[in-house]
Amino acid sequence: MTNPGPNRPRRRGSCPGVLAPMQVGDGFLLRVRVPAGVLPADHARGIAELGDRYGNGLIDLSQRGNLQLRGISADGLEPVTEALRGMGYVSGDAASEAVRNVLCSPTAGLDPTALMDVRGVARTLDARLAEDAGLHRLPPKFGWLACGGGIGHLAHSGADVRFDAVGDGWFQVSLGGTLATAAPLGLCRVQGVADLASALGGAFLELRASLPEPPRRMAGLVVAIGTDPFVTRLSSLISPLPPGERIKVRGTHLMDVFGDAEPPHPNLLPGGEKGLITGKVIAFPFGRLTCAALSALAATSTEIRITPWRALILVSPSGDAEHAARAQGAILSHADRRLKLTACSGAGGCDVGTTDTHATALAIADRAGPLLDAVRMVHVSGCAKGCAHPAIADVTLTARDGLYDVALNAKPGDATRNTGLSPADAMASVADLLTEESSGA
After folding, report:
1. pLDDT at 243
2. Per CATH, is 338-439 categorized as 3.90.1300.10?
3. pTM for the whole structure
4. Which of 4, 150, 331, 427 lies at a 20 to 30 A Cα distance from 197?
5. Longest pairwise C-alpha distance within the chain
6. Which residues contact 300 (CB under 8 A, 6 or more apart)?
7. What is the dihedral of CA 329, 334, 340, 344, to 10 degrees?
8. Alpha helices (runs of H) in 150-289, residue ranges in sequence order
9. 352 three-state secondary structure
10. pLDDT tens digits for 215-232?
11. 95-258: CATH class
12. If you compute the radius of gyration of the chain from its CA atoms, what whole number of angstroms results?
């Protein structure tokens, strides 16, 4: 079939929050920003109760370590907001909430191999972003990262500003990317992170405004002007890096843990902890669980850590934690092929989606079976925006008007010869493509 035209993504604008709910296909979506990704058990039970009472009982785990309550009714917005405010998850206004995009090592304080417990740093940074009105003009997706190293390293997570621990109370500060791609800026002490963040945010806003087409993210600004203008403005807050060198993360180094694999590494997937952290790691297909599941898990642990890999860490789990997780449909083995599937909400959960993306992805797992072992990721997207995974996947299905375009090594919406396929034909096409891939054809 000839491609009828480009499969174009739809843009929504700013990200959802408690004070900026987004109306989608199944009601209002509320993103709860959890400081340092640490969710106490009583808060988890409270949030689960809110989702059951005022929503559709579903929760999504975001790739930035947050929770998303789904299907909240219009009448439920006020009581949910007030309850979350009482737990400390609501900012003063929508602008201060929108900039609180801080990703923290999910194993901070649990991993003896880490260089630093960065939970305090992440919370301090979260608070500074909320209180500094000058930073509220930052783009909604502008993100910050505090990484303490160890098994929970955030090396492959991108951020506009990175604070990567290098030991002895110091961070390497880098701009616009992953640990490998971000531009190193200098070093700062733990105590100076909040002040440096305020200065960095202000410098970004000032420097981007001087360009004819202001970049919306730090990586674009660094490409346009380099790092020297930042160094000049921030010289009193940072220490220089050794000339011509990028500081390597000491202690349990990135490559000692991950090799050449992308996270989540098996040691941070269900069944793969091997005693390296003091918690139990579990996951759910597509990062979606029910409120009943969250409540049941909270009853077996003292707190729950939210990871950027759509997995959860149960801290100090009881003896029946695994049984409870299994009963709630959790993934308990890193060999589970469902971990190789990503999918957005699709029809019913999004007003743009036209296919049941979750059903399609699970059917692919059933049909393709062992062939999935030959790939890292199969992505089923309800439209060309690719909310669940906008980057390249080994196999990508992009929905359009109830049909799918299927492509290898592509992003959602990329051109392909396999277009306009019914869900059944798309599944057959994926099985054929995986067979060719595994046979080297």
Report:
1. 67
2. no
3. 0.88
4. 150
5. 61
6. 314, 317, 318, 320, 321, 324, 325
7. 40
8. 193-209, 218-225, 228-233, 254-258
9. coil
10. 999 999 999 999 999 999
11. alpha beta
12. 22
